[in-house]
Design brief:
The chain has 191 residues and is an alpha+beta fold. The chain is built from four helices and ten strands, in the order βαββαββββααβββ.
Length: 191
C-alpha cells in the first residue's frame, strides 16, 4: 500500500524545455527502478492536462508513491545525479487520509500504418498490396494523451510513453508497478 509520497518538481530552466527535463527525469527514475527491482513504487503526475490536445502535458511534478522504507531506500541511491540543479525534492510525507485513488497506466497506440504493414509483410511473407489491404490507413491511431519522450535503452530508438490517469476510485487497489512506476490494476493516492 502506498502510504507516503515524495514530489519532484522541475524548476524553470532557460536552457532546457520542461518536456526535455521531464524526459531526463523519467529516464533516470526508470533506470533506478530497474536496478532496484522495484515493483512497489508508483508514480503520478498531479499537474497533468489531457484536454484540450494543444495543452496536453504531464506537468512539472512527478510524484513518487510507496511506503516510507521503499521511498527512503530509493532516495538514498544517487539516481537524481545530474538533475539536482533542475529539480526540487520534497521531504517524505504521509498521504492525506481523505485521498481518493486512481490507476496511472501506460497506453500504447498503433501510430504508423506503414510500419505496421512492413512488420506484417515480414511476419506473413505478404506483398505490399496484401499488407495494405489488411491494414488500412484508418488503423492508425493518433495518441490523445499526455506523454514523455524517451529513448529505448535496448534499441536506442526514441518513443513516446503515453500516460493515462484512470477514473477516481474511493478505495486503494493493490498490485505491482512496472519499471516506469505505472500499473494497469494497482492504484496510487490522488490528491
Amino acid at each position: 500500500m502506498t502510504t507516503h509520497y515524495i514530489d519532484i518538481t522541475l524548476l524553470p530552466d532557460p536552457e532546457f524545455s520542461q518536456a526535455h527535463l521531464l524526459g531526463a527525469l523519467v529516464a533516470k527514475l526508470h533506470r533506478a527502478l530497474v536496478q532496484g527491482q522495484h515493483t512497489d513504487i508508483g508514480v503520478s503526475y498531479p499537474q497533468h492536462i489531457s484536454q484540450p490536445l494543444a495543452r496536453r502535458t504531464l506537468g512539472t511534478v512527478l510524484r513518487l508513491h510507496g511506503t516510507p522504507e521503499v521511498l527512503q531506500r530509493l532516495m538514498a541511491r544517487d539516481w537524481l545525479k545530474g538533475m539536482r540543479d533542475h529539480t526540487r525534492v520534497t521531504a517524505l510525507r504521509p498521504v492525506p487520509t481523505d485521498a481518493l485513488h486512481r490507476t496511472v497506466r501506460r497506453r500504447q497506440f498503433k501510430t504508423n500504418a506503414n510500419r505496421l504493414r512492413r512488420r506484417r509483410m515480414l511476419r506473413k511473407n505478404e506483398t505490399a498490396e496484401q499488407a495494405a489491404a489488411a491494414i488500412p490507413d484508418s488503423a492508425e491511431r493518433r495518441p490523445d494523451l499526455p506523454f514523455v519522450q524517451l529513448r529505448s535503452s535496448s534499441t536506442g530508438q526514441p518513443f513516446c510513453l503515453c500516460v493515462e490517469h484512470g477514473p477516481l476510485l474511493p478505495q486503494h487497489v493493490s498490485g505491482a508497478f512496472n519499471a516506469y512506476g505505472l500499473a494497469h490494476e494497482a492504484t496510487v493516492p490522488w490528491f
